[in-house]
Amino acid sequence: MKIKIKKDALTLYIRDNTDWHGHYHGQDQWEVFLANVAGLELEVDEENLFKYEYDVLPVHGITKSKIRILDDYVEKVIDDQRVGKARCDFCNHVSLSTDLCTSCGRSDYLENF
Questions:
Q1: 80 bridge partner residues
Q2: 54 and 24, same structural domain?
Q3: How many distinct structural domains can be found in the chain?
Q4: Which residues neighbour 34 within 8 Å (Cβ) at sequence distance 6 or greater?
Q5: Measured distance CA(93)–CA(70) in Å, rounded
Q6: Are residues 71 and 25 in the same domain?
Q7: Domain check: are 70 and 99 in the same one?
Q8: pLDDT tens column, 49-60
Q9: How does pLDDT run across 99-109, given as a tens digit for each residue?
Q10: Are residues 45 and 76 in the same domain?
Q11: Residue numbers of the domain that contains 100
Q12: Per DSSP, what are the bridge partners of residue 78?
């Protein structure tokens, strides 16, 4: 599974982190990261899936660890592995079923992707 980062991700980040008075509250490391990955396809950690964000595997020369990207900065999802799965809000695991959590056996806490 991969995600393609929007080409204007840095611009969006700056806009999202600037208040009504024009004061910027963003963080330098996010600016550098988004500037370096804008327009790129990044590998997603499929072990820990979320509905509106993605844990991206380390990017050679840019990051040494996984980093979580919000859906706001993603242009498209390639080979989406979340289809037919759900996140269980009770045990916080990814269920391989949308009817019954394959980790804890509950059905009333599932949120489909």
A1: none
A2: yes
A3: 2
A4: 5, 9, 10, 13, 73
A5: 19
A6: yes
A7: no
A8: 999 999 999 999
A9: 999 999 999 99
A10: yes
A11: 83-113
A12: 2
In one-letter notation, the amino acid at residue 81 is Q
Looking at residue 72, its amino acid is: D
Q: What is the pLDDT of residues 19-45, one digit of tens each?
A: 999 999 999 999 999 999 999 999 999
Please give the Cα distance from 109 to 78 (Å, whole number): 27
Give residue for tokens 């592995």. Answer: 81
Expressed in angstroms, the distance from the first to the final Cα of the chain is 14
- Kindly indicate the confidence band of residue 48, based on its pLDDT and cuts at 50, 70 and 90: confident
pLDDT band at 13 (very low <50, low <70, confident <90, very high): very high
Residue 55, H or E segment: strand 53-56
Q: Which residue has the tokens 């820990």?
A: 48
The two tokens of residue 14 are 């700056």
